[in-house]
Amino acid sequence: MNTQHSPLIPQQIIEDVCEWAIMHGIAFRNADNSARHCPFSIAPMAMEREVYRHLLNVTPLLTKLIHAVSEDHDFLQASLSSMANADPFFGSLMALHQQAHGTTSNRLNPARQPLLLMRTDFMDDRYHGAKVIEFNGIAAGMGPFGQRAAQLHNYVQQQWPNTYQQWVEEGSATPADNHGMEQLALAITTAARAIKAEFSGDEYTEQKPTFLMVVQKDEDNVYDQHLLEVELQKHGIRTVRRTFAQLSTQLSSGNNQRLLLENIGAIDVVYLRAGYQHSDYCAPELDESVCCQALSQTRLRIEQHRVAVNATFSQQLATSKSMQMLLTMMPAKEYARWGLNLDEAQLIKSVLAEMKPVSTKTIEWFKTEAKQDEWVLKNQGEGGGHCIFGAAINDKLNTLLPQEYDAWALMQRLYPHERETPTVAVRDSQQTLVKDLVSEIGLFTAYFNGEPVTEFEGYAGYLIRSKPASENEGGIHSGKGILDSLTLVD
After folding, report:
1. Contact at 8 Å (CB) between 64 and 72?
2. Which long-range contacts (CB under 8 A, 24 or more apart) does 334-343 make?
3. Where is the Glutathione synthase substrate-binding domain (predicted)?
4. 27 with 148: CB under 8 angstroms?
5. Is the overall model pTM greater than 0.85, yes or no?
6. What angle do CA 198, 203, 208 make, to 5 degrees?
7. Which of 235, 195, 231 is nearest to 461 (CA)?
8. Has residue 385 got a pLDDT over 70?
9. DSSP 292-357
10. Cα(442)–Cα(463) distance, rounded to whole angstroms?
11. How far apart are CA 281 and CA 295, in angstroms?
12. How does DSSP assign 198-226, residue by residue?
């Protein structure tokens, strides 16, 4: 730890970089509408170029697979029914999915068009190589922050080269390109224009293609969202933001299943930054005993219109932990069901970490045979705070009822490489020396109707989040994580 008496980096430099961060939107909004910078590392991590290339090759294939699974509606219903019975939130999602795709005509000709904006999170395990932690198919944000973190490190390198060289993990490494903002905006723009073109000649022809972001009330992560909106506006896209509660009274239907928003007009793309937890569907101010039902039906209503959607119910189910487990346990040859050849399937298999369902048999195995530090227990929750480690796993397993088992899964615990040199973490303009930093890399991909829609075959930039190895929760929001960026070594 540093002290006030002998700062590792002159405080003037720290303040300068923090001001740069806030000025460029690398910030969270405080309750009083002021801003605080996101925590960040002062210099980037290093990864072997071959490992990075491997991830760039496999991640679009994962997206191709997840898209195909997400549009296989009968498979989703059949394979996830036990999980849905064990997890009330996913039970409600499955019911909504059944409403949306329960009839043959709905399955064959769904109104909504799937825009899969996905972030696949990896850790580069020191023994097993890079493995998937989880798929993020809904509210898969912070692509703009990923790009901005790379730009922040470039700023440090240009303005404070001695500081950069002192703290960068590998001085001879070259920064990895990151165009996350531009590529996600390109994908959304492509989808928006495609939908709008279907309605050429209607009363909204003169209107700009319009993008609706569904957000949480009193959201603090607004700057990452606004950075994406600004990039979309450069493409001539109009952007609007609404909560589910607002949409419950503001949506209507136009001709040919056109989705209309009060005082705005036609909507072409809906991007959900909310909807991954029960609280997103609760609006006490509506004074409705069934407010959750009303707001979830609003989401269903969106999918019953001709609009590009991320995330669809299907995508959210297909990126669940239970589906990750099923795909991990499935023989590679069975991926042929979704159009992947054996080479593609085996490449995907190379990055899937072992997973086991929770059952009476696996609980007994875990207690008597397993090396308990080699596993993590996960439920279906999104974001931080949903993982249990070490001795605490036994405690949790002892409290689970059999009907709750299918909401949980055991997964091989990953132990990534620790950064070879200490670095400085900056949080609230204060610097801290971290000697055991480990990193998680999230790769963004974008597919529209099953086809890649970026300039890099579906790849759309990266997000690096680093944390001390001693900390279990690495989220920027909900843990001890810090924004980071990537350099490559040969």
Report:
1. no
2. 335/65, 337/72, 337/75, 338/64, 338/65, 338/68, 338/69, 338/72, 339/64, 339/68, 340/61, 340/64, 340/65, 340/68
3. 210-318
4. no
5. yes
6. 70
7. 231
8. no
9. HHHHHHHHHHHHTSS-EEES-HHHHHHTSHHHHHHHHHS-GGGGGGGT--HHHHHHHHTTBPPEEE
10. 5
11. 5
12. HTTTSTTTTSPPEEEEE--TT-S-HHHHH
Q: Which two tokens stand for residue 3?
A: 């002290």
Mean pLDDT of the region 116-134: 95
How does DSSP classify residue 486?
E
Q: What span, in angstroms and rounded, lies between the C-alpha atoms of 229 and 234?
A: 9
Q: Which two three-digit tokens encode residue 121? A: 């999170």
Taking the alpha carbons at both ends of the chain, their separation in whole angstroms is 32
Consecutive H or E run containing 483: strand 482-484
Residue 93: closest CA among 360, 278, 353, 237: 278
Give the span between the Cα atoms of 168 and 45, in whole angstroms. 7
Domain map of the chain by residue range? Answer: 11-353+414-489, 354-413
214: tokens are 């569904």
Distance CA 345, CA 414 (A): 22
Instruction: Check: CB of residue 67 under 8 Å from CB of residue 448.
Output: no
Lowest mean pLDDT among 41-55, 416-430, 474-488: 474-488
Q: CB-side exposure of 220: number of CA atoms within 13 Å?
A: 14
Task: Take residue 419 and report the two structure tokens written for it.
Answer: 């950064």
Q: To which residue do tokens 């990126």 refer?
A: 319
